């Protein structure tokens, strides 16, 4: 049995499809309100803040994927992430399950330095500190031999379905609606973006590769990095829209954040938009040379086609 905790988000949904296609039909989907992805899925309703519910969700699992998400709220992240991670580690230890953790880069320095797996942690705000805390919690459990785990780290993502990201909400969704795309601070710095189905396919592969455990892996991205200006131009061509965009200056972001809590929660991430963001996934590509990374052209085309089918 392979179990996905937080199966209702887009990463979890794509992961369920990848596991069924390439590895197993014994899949358990766990969330507050799980929905069937494959016709053979087992559904379990659980709250990962509850230790006993987490234990019951993990029981009988060979591999557990932690893909749960939380609303972009600093207080919620600070209060809930440590509890959820502790419950998941304890459950995997108790039931002898291997753990595959979907991580992000919030704790990395927000500089132009290329980001490798050994990059130091230097968070710029409470959400980054929360992610650093739970990652170190897992690394400690791995070092103590309590749990066999693999950390799968992804940069900013974009994608199909229910993908929730800054790029989807400020750029892609606006362009598809015929509105002006919005970019924070600068549109001429290089971005590294991962397509959500690629992230899930890579996680499924790592989870089913025994010698991948005990390590951190950067999930594979298109190395043809684009600026947001170039990304918007490409998206406009693919979507068949005008492709207008505006760059929100620092003072405009500050003003908007006074009235919009969601914008306010992006404040600690602003330094990453001032400079090139170079997330390096060479380790994964060397280990899995046959893994095909989706190009930006292909990813945007998939988003367009999905939109047309709705």
UniProtKB/TrEMBL annotation:
| Record's signal peptide | none
InterPro entries, alphabetized: Epimerase_deHydtase (IPR001509), NAD(P)-bd_dom_sf (IPR036291), NAD(P)-dependent_oxidoreduct (IPR051783)
Example GO CC term: the record gives:
cytoplasm
Q: Domain of life of the organism in this record?
A: Bacteria
What is this protein called in UniProt? Nucleoside-diphosphate-sugar epimerase
Example of a GO MF term = aldehyde dehydrogenase (NAD+) activity
Short name of any one Pfam family annotated for the protein: Epimerase
Q: Give the organism the record lists.
A: Tamilnaduibacter salinus
Q: Which residues form the NAD-dependent epimerase/dehydratase domain?
A: 4-212
